[in-house]
Amino acid sequence: MSAPVSVSLLVNGEPIDAFVLPRLNLADFLRENLRLTGTHVGCEHGVCGACTVRLDGEIVRSCLMLAVQAQGASVETIEGLSDSGEIADLQAAFRERNALQCGYCTPGMLMTAQDLLKQMPVPDRQAIREHLSGNYCRCTGYQAIVDAVEATAKTRAGRPA
Amino acid sequence: MKAAAFAYARATSVVNALELLAAHGDKAKVLSGGQSLMPAMNLRLISPDILVDIGGLAELRGIAVRAGVLIVGALTRHVDLLRSPEIALYAPLLRDAVAHVAHPAIRNRGTIGGSLAHADPASELPACVVALDAMIVVRGPSGERRIAATEFFKGIYETALSPDELLVAIEVPVAGQGSTFFFQEYARRHGDYAVVGLAARAVVAAGRFTDLRLGFFAIGDRPMLAAAAGRLINASVTSALLAEAATALADELDPQEDQQATAAMRRHLATVLLRRCVAALLARPDLEAGVAR
Lengths: 161, 293
Hints:
The complex is a heterodimer.
Chain A: E1 5-11, E2 14-20, H1 26-33, E3 52-55, E4 58-61, E5 74-76, H2 78-83, H3 88-96, H4 106-119, H5 125-131, H6 143-158
Parallel strand pairs in A: 1-5
Antiparallel strand pairs in A: 1-2, 3-4, 3-5
Helix pairs in contact in A: 3-6
Chain B: E1 7-10, H1 14-24, E2 28-31, H2 37-42, E3 50-53, E4 63-66, E5 69-73, H3 78-83, H4 85-90, H5 92-98, H6 104-107, H7 112-118, H8 124-131, E6 135-140, E7 143-148, H9 149-152, E8 153-155, E9 158-159, E10 166-173, E11 179-187, E12 194-205, E13 208-217, E14 224-225, H10 239-252, H11 263-281
């Protein structure tokens, strides 16, 4: 019954065809099958945000999605955002402000922060906290993360397009 | 944890989904956005034999207005409700409520049909459809039927849906002249499940309620339409009358005790929400005075 199912999708722009068991979630598919281990698995029930990826341009929890549900979709992981340079400034701001310690939450934080900055170019600190409220960090106390996102927003806003 | 093994079928149409549900009965679960189903499966609270994925069915998407009724397709996501101009105009209660549902990444996947069919007594949308006097449209082997939202929720994770039926849409009467709405909840943290919440729809004319529907949630095994609202309709609302309604509300509630709150605390918070709601809807800040007590 629970036979492998075929799935075709784009991951960071690359076409992928695979046969996967229905129970395989997207996070494990990315990590185990594609070796894209930047997507982290924390709580596995949608609470911690460590597994956040982009699906057709919108952030989602990859632990709350089956790999087979990504049929026909375009998935972007932290590797994709990092390699393209899209979030280079955000990553630099995190580094400069010590907005990470163990780094486990960082890929999800960057994904979510970039999502906010795309929707709201100059968010205030409350809006930043609100948007990141579904991403847990057990090291930093969040202050430095909010600082880094705020600083990146201000720099991007001041930069001529 | 990971979900136990199951079979998977991607429905190609509503008819195909119904055939799959008819073939597998209660051994099947419908997969929509999966934002409640997947956690439950990952935690091994449920292990269906087969998932019927309706996520690709375009016929279940979209928001339309026809003959004074707002029709919301079952696959409409929380983020769609948040951004829809039709929802903002005709059922702003849904938009206000969705802002309290989880976090952006969850709202990008979760659907209204999924939330209603899941019937978590602490979730926001079931109470909204009760307050809005909505109809739940379901399709089964013998055709389509409409179930009043007030009759749809039967208990914790229990609804009037049979295993061979699919929730396809929600029909909401559009907000008319003088309609106002109120949504507030107590939660430990924004985005968490409510400790107590209230979704309300009212019609106000000349400073009085000509209609008032109070949908409380997280106060029992299903969203509850408070009978106490009746005391405030077509009456001149004074502090004394509101206090009477609050007492009646506390009496009709039978809240559960859990890690978040005692039954007494839930009763108290429900009456605070009642006072705030009435004060806000009638634009009478004086009526909220009793809250600080």
